[in-house]
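User: Hello! My lab partner asked me to get a predicted holo structure for this protein. The small molecule is adenosine-5'-triphosphate, SMILES included with the sequence. Please write out the structure tokens.
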Amino acid sequence: MAETRDIAVRLTDVEKNYGSFQAVRDMTLDIPEGSFVTLLGPSGCGKTTTLRMIAGLESITAGEIAIKGRRVNEVPIHKRNLGVVFQNYALFPHMSIADNVAFGLKYRKLNKTDAREKVRRALQMVRLPHVEDRFPGQLSGGQQQRIALARAIVIEPDVLLLDEPLSALDANLREDMRVELKRIQRELGIATVFVTHDQGEALAMSDKVVVMSDGQMEQIGTPEDVYNRPTSRFVASFLGNSNFLGATVEDVTDGLVTLAVKPGEGGAMPIRLSIASNGRFRKGEAVQIVIRAERLCIGRAPESRGGPMNTFEGVVTNVDYQGLNARYFVEAGGQKLQVINPIDQHPAREGDRVTLHLRSEDAVILDDTGHVHH
Amino acid sequence: MSTLAESRRPWLLLSPALGTLSFLLVAPLGFIVVYSFWLRTATGADMGGFHLDNWVEFFTDAFYHDILFYTVRVALITTILCAVVGYIPAYFIANTRMKNKALLLLLLMLPFWISYIIRTLSWINILGTGGAVNYVLMQLGIVNEPLQLLYNEPSVILGLMHYLLPFMILNVYVSLSGIDGNLVAAARTLGATPFGAFLKVTLPLSMPGLAAGSLLCFVLGAGTYITPLILGGPTNAMFANLIFEAIIIQLNWPLGAALSIVLLVVLGTVVTVYGRLMGLNQISKSFG
Ligand SMILES: Nc1ncnc2c1ncn2[C@@H]1O[C@H](COP(=O)(O)OP(=O)(O)OP(=O)(O)O)[C@@H](O)[C@H]1O
Ligand SMILES: [Mg+2]
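Assistant: Hello! Below are the structure tokens for the protein in complex with adenosine-5'-triphosphate.
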């Protein structure tokens, strides 16, 4: 565990109940200084509630929240020194942009010149230097978003809390703002908690992703980790396109598990796979194999990483062209598999008989409850 | 050809509304204007024609001016008190997490189901010499003689507040409930105390409702004659009481017509000036 002084926010066993309904439970999480941590999960999983508890906008039922090593459970909102950006921006409609941005500075004992200078610099940082005299209603959604960010960072908060700040923007603008937001966060070096249900955003921006479901953390890790090494079926299915195959352990030898995939209907020959072990498995144990759709390669074998290559045959039943990639539905060993491959000169067609390749490192084995072995 | 038909269409579609309006509003108003130039003779008959006597009487007799100022004064005090007293329940209803918000609003409407006259009369049972308040005070031995709580300016203002508060509360409530809760949250995270956030965010944003409610209270308060009639003394007559006197008691319709026009012009001017100051859209909100 990191030194306390390097931790911007620490949640310890935090819980939130609304009456008898548990919105958040067992949240234990460290947000290191300067890091960008994303809470990712489906609607209603408790992301906003968690963020609002950190901000003090929601009381906590149990547990402890500490900011910069100081317990803040009893600290009122206005003394927490946090920058919050709300999903709908929440700009004050009756104040000019300059007054909006300067709002938090009024409580920070600055003289007028310094305050004006800070506002100017914050607006420059979000690249909207010439809108001081306008009102929020006269700005576009993307501009309002930037102003909300400027208002939050101008007070030099200890932590930046962002609740789906990009979700109200259209797709192109969202991509731009993603880059902007990340640039600003890096320039300020400020610890940031970002809430989203968009996996693309989470994977692109975060140092650490916290995947949540039903008020609980499912997995914490780098984007690479949660994407490639999901620790539960929920995480694997929430992020990207995955195949889930029921299988039985046939053999375990030096780090490799040999598995017989349960054949589907039709009495096809079952596929046999060798997968790098990620736990302790017993012969005969029933497990689930998670294979990312992009990890299955049609035709050409991927470069080996030292482990054995699995090769098996299948028939393409459907092709879904997506521009850069094609999504194939392949029937192999009585199972329907999803395969996403870049489109090269010779994309496979419906009815083609193809060879599929899978590296032993490119799959994850979960127990039959859908979790990794511990 | 078609453009001519096109240009006529809005008027065609508006005609039922315009017809109803002219029949119910413009025509009677026209009659009142005409009437105000008639004259009531000593025999009690109305004499048609163009006589300025009613208008001369109004403009030269200070009695009317005093009562007009008194009316404005009472309506103004009532409006300010309604704004202060009404804001609190409006704020509560808008911000409560109670499930029965609709019930609270219904309770607010409940008084409208009882005649305004009966509601006003009920104050006699409360404040009268034999009323509840005096009874309690005498039973407790605080006073020996019943206090004269009725038939003065405070009792008129109290009665008017009783009548007008729901209008104020509803208008402020509508304004308050339209404020995004995240605005106060944002102000708080930026460093504002709960009261600071109220002053800087909630209060300014609820101004439209407060303004609309105030206008409604003022106009309705300044135009009433029932409350001063029932709860006021001889010195508490308001302008509408004069109209009531002239038309119902003295049967002097021409004078009543002239006084009605005075009140209409005064209140109309208030609405217009207010509308210019506060923005027209806020006024239109207050009337629905
Ligand atoms: N004030 C409240 N009273 C009762 N239940 C609440 C309250 N606020 C939130 N909840 C419940 O708590 C759960 C978590 O809500 P939360 O807003 O944190 O979800 P979220 O992850 O932010 O979802 P979304 O992506 O839709 O914003 C939901 O089931 C919600 O219905
Ligand atoms: Mg949310």
